[in-house]
Amino acid sequence: MKILVVGTGAREHAITRALALDPSVTGLHAAPGNPGIGAVATLHAVDPLDGTAVAGLARELGADLVVVGPEAPLVAGVADAVRGAGIPVFGPSAQAARLEGSKAFAKEVMAAAGVPTAEPRVARTVDEAVAAIDELGAPHVVKEDGLAAGKGVVVTEDRQVAVDHARACLAKEGGAVVVEEYLDGPEVSLFVLADGTDVVPLVPAQDFKRALDDDKGPNTGGMGAYTPLPWAPEGLVEEVLETVARPTVAEMARRGTPFVGVLYCGLALTSKGVRVVEFNARFGDPETQVVLARLRTPLAGVLHAAATGGLGALAPLEWSDEAAVTVVVASEGYPAAPRTGDVITGLDVAESVEGVHVLHAGTALDDEGRVVSAGGRVLSVTATGADLAQARERAYVAVASIGLAGSHHRADIAAKASAAS
Question: How far is CA 406 from CA 326, 329, 340, 358, in A?
Answer without folding.
Answer: 20, 10, 10, 19
